[in-house]
């Protein structure tokens, strides 16, 4: 029913809001960025799909990543033996990465391997890697090309950012599950994730961009900016690099031709929009933004079922 393009924080929070509103969470398909993926400690880590899954399972740690209440025995043991633990994984987090890695090493697609993680946590919404083919976000800063996690963690996202590339995007294709989700959705939503490094790798897949451009149903973006700034992370820096104004209007221009409306905390000229406090730090906030998206979707003609529209506050 709803296809949501998402990174690992803002989009994941919105995914939880939608899942709580939908009668059947399986009516939600989250198309997640895999440009941040990394191999470390012998396992395949897929940060954004996992964060979406942890949010949907109501297991996310208060830090906004990892699993709540996780232990760190493996990392501690590695450190005691002089190993570099620059990328830290809690024990439960590592165990779920092992589930995915076993399936990948057995020749299964990443989509199938990610489903094993969702199944292990009882998540019924579909968390779909945008592609099963290699796709890696790389950042050039201070004259050096770095994989995304190295830039974010080892370099602490210190710029200046000189270039961004999505390695493998020219050969990547959306999975059949992603293609089906976009083709059958009654509503497509671009979540409030970083437009450059979270949504950018998804839209760099030609088949995904083409599906949005040829859409037959409404598509709505949610601005990642609150009061003219990103809530967390390097979104402001990446948008400045990409020439995207840190405003709802800047986001609307970045997604021109791919959306029919936007939800934001400030007006946008020339595009249908709904105003709402877009901060989603708690459950009421997540539900508030999700409901507002559905309100605008109904206004734009989305064929949403009466049971779902009944959960939306009417506007006069």
Automatic annotation (TrEMBL):
Domain of life from the UniProt record: Bacteria
SUPFAM superfamilies registered for this protein in UniProt: CofD-like
Listed name of the protein: LPPG:FO 2-phospho-L-lactate transferase
InterPro entries named among the record's database cross-references: CofD (IPR002882), CofD-like_dom_sf (IPR038136), FbiA/CofD (IPR010115)
Keywords (A to Z) from UniProt: Magnesium, Transferase
Lineage: Bacteria, Bacillati, Actinomycetota, Thermoleophilia, Thermoleophilales
GO molecular function, one term: magnesium ion binding
CDD domains: CofD_like
A Pfam family annotated for this UniProt entry: CofD
Keyword Magnesium among UniProt keywords: yes
HAMAP family xref list: CofD
């Amino acid at each position: 029913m709803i296809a949501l393009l998402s990174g690992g924080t803002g989009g994941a929070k919105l995914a939880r809001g939608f899942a709580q509103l939908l009668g059947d969470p399986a009516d939600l398909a989250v198309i997640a960025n895999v440009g941040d993926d990394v191999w470390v400690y012998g396992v395949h880590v897929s940060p954004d799909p996992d964060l979406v899954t942890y949010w949907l399972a109501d297991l996310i740690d208060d830090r906004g990543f990892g699993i709540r209440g996780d232990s760190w025995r493996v990392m501690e043991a590695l450190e005691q033996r002089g190993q570099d633990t620059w990328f830290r994984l809690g024990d439960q987090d590592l165990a779920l990465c092992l589930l995915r890695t076993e399936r990948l090493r057995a020749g299964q697609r990443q989509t199938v391997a990610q489903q094993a993680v969702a199944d292990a946590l009882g998540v019924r919404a579909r968390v779909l890697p945008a592609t099963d083919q290699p796709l890696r976000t790389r950042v050039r800063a201070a004259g050096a090309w770095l994989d995304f996690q190295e830039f974010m963690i080892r370099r602490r996202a210190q710029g200046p950012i000189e270039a961004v590339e999505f390695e493998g995007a020219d050969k990547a294709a959306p999975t059949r599950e992603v293609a089906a989700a976009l083709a059958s959705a009654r509503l497509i939503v671009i979540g409030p994730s970083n437009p450059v490094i979270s949504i950018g790798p998804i839209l760099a897949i030609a088949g995904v961009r083409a599906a949005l451009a040829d859409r037959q149903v409404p598509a709505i973006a949610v601005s990642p900016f609150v009061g003219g700034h990103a809530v967390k992370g390097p979104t402001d820096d990446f948008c400045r690099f990409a020439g995207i104004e840190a405003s709802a209007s800047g986001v609307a221009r970045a997604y021109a031709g791919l959306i029919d409306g936007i939800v934001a905390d400030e007006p946008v000229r020339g595009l249908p929009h709904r105003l709402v406090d877009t901060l989603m730090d708690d459950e009421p906030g997540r539900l508030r933004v999700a409901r507002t998206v559905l309100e605008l979707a109904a206004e734009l003609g989305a064929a949403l079922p009466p049971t779902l529209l009944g959960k939306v506050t009417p506007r006069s």
